[in-house]
Amino acid sequence: MNEIVLDSQGWAEMTQDRPGDMLRLAREQRGMTIADVAGVTRVAQRQLEAIERSDFSALPGTPYAVGFARAYARAVGADEVAVARGVRAELGAADPTERYEMFEPVDPARIPPRRLAWVSAIIAGLLGTAYAVWRTQFFSASTDQEVSDLANRAAEQAPTLQGRASQTSAAAPQVAQDAPVVLTAAEDVWLRIYDAQGIRLLEKQMVKGESYTVPAQANNPMILTGRPNALVVTVGGKTVAPLGSPERTISDVPISAAALLARPVAPAITDEAPKPLPAPVAQPSNPITLSASTMRAMDEAGSEPAAPAGQ
Predict the structure, then answer these.
(1) 144-161+175-261 is classed in which CATH architecture?
(2) Cβ(154)–Cβ(244) under 8 Å?
(3) pLDDT one-digit tens code per residue, 74-87
(4) Facing residues of 254 across strands?
(5) What confidence tens digit (pLDDT) does each residue in 23-73 have?
(6) Structural domain boundaries of the chain?
(7) Main-chain phi, psi angles of 201, to 5 degrees
(8) CA-wise closest residue to 253 among 175, 205, 194
(9) pLDDT tens figures, 194-219
(10) Using CA atoms in the order 119, 122, 127, 131, what is the torsion angle rounded to 10 degrees?
(11) 112 phi, psi to nearest 5 deg
(12) Each residue of 119-130: pLDDT tens digit?
């Protein structure tokens, strides 16, 4: 395209008109159509037609109106500063500094509609809520009710465990605080072992019969699993109490040797048969009735001192 250079007299005549008239006249002098200008500026034809009518209220706002008008002016070789000044005057937002501004308009056809934006925001919110609920259900620690149930169960078993411990304490050697901790899967179970810094030591699906020895140098190792009852935990070969309630997710439960030994001892499994209950004592069918004189004589005999032996 060849640029059309207007002399000062021509611009003086054009500046007497409104910005839309100035741009339309420049476009016609270039022999361009609205579609040609839209292809160069990537501004929708309806927006360009509104600019030629000087109907700037149909545009999204002052910045868009000024930017679209500047792009139109550059496409047809008009003075974009004068056009921008006229647009601001039309909108009542003239800039007293009249400083030159560069504005690259956005293709309105590529701007997503407001309804699509709202639908996308609602879908994103629903997905975020669903993820938060799933994460809470899967990674939640034991609730206060679960902790209370464990404490009550341990308190009920304490007398029995203490009695058995007193009987076997002399024969059974004490387990060292640094004894190896071994986790054995009684059933298929997923678990994660990590230390105090959050470094993962193990994360896998253990199959039935598989064992894992907690590293002795681990810093306060802890466990996360959804099936603590599927694990058999031993310290130095000695079985300790279950890590949590059956089918309840546990997390941040210490599994160092010292922490496990401080837990209640698991009840020992014995092959002793239950002792039979004593047979009830047969009661006489006819009760014996004593007279009042006999009862008095028995009371007097019981109150007298016993005679010495040999007299």
Answers:
(1) Sandwich (2.60)
(2) no
(3) 998 888 888 888 88
(4) 222
(5) 889 889 989 998 998 998 898 889 888 888 888 878 888 888 889 989 989
(6) 8-110, 112-141, 144-161+175-261
(7) -90, -30
(8) 194
(9) 998 889 889 989 999 999 999 988 88
(10) 170
(11) -65, 145
(12) 899 999 999 898
Cα 196 to Cα 27, 141, 220, distances in angstroms: 73, 16, 6
274 residue type, one letter: P
What span, in angstroms and rounded, lies between the C-alpha atoms of 52 and 65?
12
Q: Let me know: does 68 contact 48? Beta carbons within 8 Å.
A: yes
Please state, in angstroms and rounded to a whole number, the distance separating the CA atoms of residues 6 and 11.
Answer: 6
pTM of structure: 0.33
Distance, CA of 36 to chain centre: 54
Strand ranges inside the chain, DSSP E: 181-185, 189-194, 200-206, 211-213, 222-225, 231-235, 238-239, 250-254
Fold classification of 8-110 (topology level) = 434 Repressor (Amino-terminal Domain) (1.10.260)
Q: Strand (E) positions, 160-306?
A: 181-185, 189-194, 200-206, 211-213, 222-225, 231-235, 238-239, 250-254
Residue 149 tokens read as 């149930």
Selection from 270, 263, 194, 190 nearest residue 233 by Cα: 263
Distance CA 70, CA 103 (A): 8
CA 219 and chain centroid, separation: 25
